[in-house]
Structures are given as C-alpha cells and as structure tokens.
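debug: dumping io for the single-chain case to check the tokenizer round-trip. Nothing else runs in this session.
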Amino acid sequence: MNTKEPFVITLSREVGSGGHTVGAILADKLEARYCDKQLLKALEKKFNLNAREIEKLKGTKKNWLADFIYKITPVPSASALGLDPQYTGESGADVSPDEIYKAEAEILRGFADMGSCVIAGRSGFFVFKDHPNSLSIFITASVPHRTERVMKKQKLSEEEALAVINRIDRMRENYIQRFAGVSRYDARNYDLVLSADGHTEDELADIILAYIK
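debug: decoded output
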C-alpha cells in the first residue's frame, strides 16, 4: 500500500479486541478520515438508509455524502445519537438486510472516493478486496481478553459480557457469510492479522504502521 496516494485501510475486529480504538489511532496518525459504525448509523438515521434512497440522493445531489460527513465530523457519540453503542446491526422493519448491505457498501465506496480513509466494519474487507491501493487488517483477541474489556467498558458481569460477545460474533459472522460468502475468521481475507493480547491499542497501531512502511 502506498500512503503517498489515496488509500483505503479496512479494519475488521472482534468485539472486545480494542480494534475500534486502534482504527481511530491509525487514522489520526495517517491523517486519514475514519469511517466507523457510528457514522453509518448516523447516515441511516438521517436518510432512512436503504439502497433506493441512496440512489435518489446521488441523483439529486452529487456531493451529498461529503456534505453530510462534513456536517457531522467529528462523529457524535452513539449515546448522543440515541443509538446502541455496541451496534448490533438491527434496523427498522421496512429496511431489508440486503438493502442495508448495498447501501453500506455504496457509502463506503463514496467515503473512499473522498480520499484516504480507515474503515472499521464487518464488510469493508470484502467491499474493497479489489481496490488497487488498500490494506485489510483483522484484529482478534483471546476470550479472556475480550471478556475483561467488555465487562469494563459496558459495566457487565462476566456472564453478561460473554453473552454479548457470543451474540455479536454470531451476528457478524452470519452477515459476512450471507453477503460475502466467506468466513470473517478466514485469515486469507486479510493482509495482516493481529492478536490484541499483550498489546495496547497504541502498540497495535504502531505495528500496523511498521508493516505499511
């Protein structure tokens, strides 16, 4: 990946691995935009996200995505948007999973068209698998590491944290299997796979930067 040209870094991660924070640190150090689920959910809330509405917006306003992103940057917190900060992927009954995937993919491509970016999300590695200047990363961690982190961040018991982890793992894997036809745990989908165990988020970001160089 050449950082002197517009690039796309996709960062997939297991819940509780700290990958979301790693992505934010990486984007900051590379002076690139950061696209995460809070941004996608903000777009969904703003535009009643579905593929048809996206196409309508594109047809009437060429720079609709840039305009909206500039308005909400920095992206407000999930709590400020009235959203679940863990983001489980649920949407209104009037929007199908297929519409959500198509719309998210369209938004991600539009985001990349705006310049260099780091994209945290379950489908990014597949959406940009043929991008000429991209890097795909997966951050994993042991169950104890993930459990401890989720317990601390969400103020949950160990049993509750494990239930959250198992639920989100299943949801994300089902999503990828449905739309990409692969497992998100298959290392062949990524250029770099890292374990968060024994590392801080800053250290993981530095490892990625060293790999890029």
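debug: round-trip ok. The CA atoms of residues 138 and 186 lie 10 Å apart.
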